[in-house]
Design brief:
heterodimer, A: alpha/beta, Rossmann fold, 6-stranded mixed β-sheet, 4-stranded antiparallel β-sheet, 10 strands, B: about 400 residues, mainly alpha, D-Maltodextrin-Binding Protein, domain 2, about 65% helix
Amino acid sequence: MIEIQNLRKEFVLSKQQRKELNTKDSIATAVDGIDFTCKPGRVFSLLGPNGAGKTTTLRMISTIFKPTAGSIKIDGIDAIANPREARKKIGFLTGSTGLYARLTPNEVIKYFADLYEVPKDKFEERKESLYTLLDMHDFQGKRIGKLSTGMKQKVSICRTMIHDPEVVVFDEPTSGLDVITAENIIELIRSCKNEGKTVIFSSHIMSEVDLLCDDLAIIHKGKMLFNGEMSDFKSQMQTDNLTAEFIRIVKSNTPIES
Amino acid sequence: MIFTIFKKELKDTLRDKRTLMMMLVIPVLIFPVILNVFVGISSSFQEEAAQKELKIGFVGEDNNYFLEQLKSLPESMGKKKIIVYKDSVSLKADIKIDSIQIGMFTANNFSSSLENKKPAKLTVFYNATDVGVKKRAETYVKTIEDIALQERYIDLNLDVAQLTPIETSYSNTASDKEMIGKLAGGILPYIFIAFGFLGCMYPAIDLFTGEKERGTIETLLTTPVARWQILFGKMGVVVLSGLLAASAALLGLFFSIEVMDIVENEELLNVVHGILNFKFILLLFLLLLPLTVFFAGIMIPIAVYAKSFKEAQSIITPINLLVVLPAMIGFFPGIKLTMITAMIPVVNIVLSTKELIAGTLDYSLLGVSFAVMILIAVIAVFVSYKQFDKETNVVT
């Protein structure tokens, strides 16, 4: 379960950043007081155009960024007051996540299991089941730098899931991947849902959202425009497809009640 | 947890060819190469100078006393060929075109002045850009002068002792160890510092900027490990790399002296044998440890701030000059470890090591140097922590 209340994030702009953004403001608000809840066994999708504040929100949930205001609870744990405890519950995967090219999949998986303090017997069991599920046995001892993009993605998935997280955060997980490789991620999201985990993923690909999500939030310029169930969203649509509706909402920039 | 990160980062670093090159291969090779080139060049210069035939032009009367003495000087004083000239103009012209190297001009009354017990005049022409020629000419002239003087003493029935009111002898109280330590001892710490810095540089950039550039830092920050633990684990590898590079340089020195027998000078060998002992190495590493932590501490904030490997490298390289240049102060023979110099970071390490080699180290000043280095290392680590804790620095 992820519970977000009045979440806000401001960044202090440097002189150079002000020049680049062509603004006189010394502060940029990336996320501007949003609320939502992601429930276990359901897939929550965070939608928004580039620069909407999706990544910043997910980074706050994963405790990489500290919010300026608001509260985040991960399975009841206050993620701001107790970030290390919250992190134990979270698995984090982004499409742009790199891996250590000079290490082997075995070494990376062991490293992350150690960082998450996974007990040895549980680690062996978990590793074996993930390797079998993702068909990773053949390349487990090869250097990651020599693996294909698909193989690397499998290692990333295994790394994310090795500590059996209750909450899984995906930040544009399929960006830059071909359809076959992206399929691994889609499968992973489905299996997380079936296992009763809380899943949140950000995307701007509507077909992916349509395929996977149960609940949905649309944010734009840091503000929430829609927050509700996918079925509600579909029933309120004023256009004939999801992409057109998404564009219409973002362009109108007015919040919609679910 | 720090150890888990340290272990992984060390493994990762040791698999990076570029880092290995800078950390181990180049430092190991540096001493054998430098010593080989240095010894090779100096011995070939000496051989060449000794074997070179010196052509001496001479102007003077027939049966000139000086010419006869010059001809009879033994071959052991260097090979020479004497060419007799008619006048000083052609003599000087030939020196200019290097067909002769020395010109000796005696006045017309040279022999008669000698016979009459008066000073006989000799002018020696030489080209000062021809290194070593003047010294050989002086040796020849001094030898002949001494022979003439002895002959005059005998002719005048004089007692040499009566003509020598003060007989002075100069005796050097400094041991070979002290001489070499004070005069050349600065080079050793300089090389250790330079390699300590280079050894830190690549891992610092790779483990911080590299992790940002490859996009792995974000994942690492979502693990339940405190940021300071990540920082310390990584910093440990940076410091170890600097120390390994300095150790590799020491190993190279040991190798070139003990295995390759490059150095033949016995005095130098004795000194080097004297310093390559457990106590020296222990003290050297004790001094290098805070220095390397300091290096890591100034490189990490830059590596954390930089967005790319290239950017980090372009900022750290000029700092290399700023930090390593003070180490060159150790090359100047007059500068000593005092209360003031012990307060200057990097310089204090060089001077302490120099005094350690010379065997004249004041341990209270060593303590001051060590304390100063620890202090600035702590400050540098604190700055690193502050930078690493800044979320906008770490995640782009």
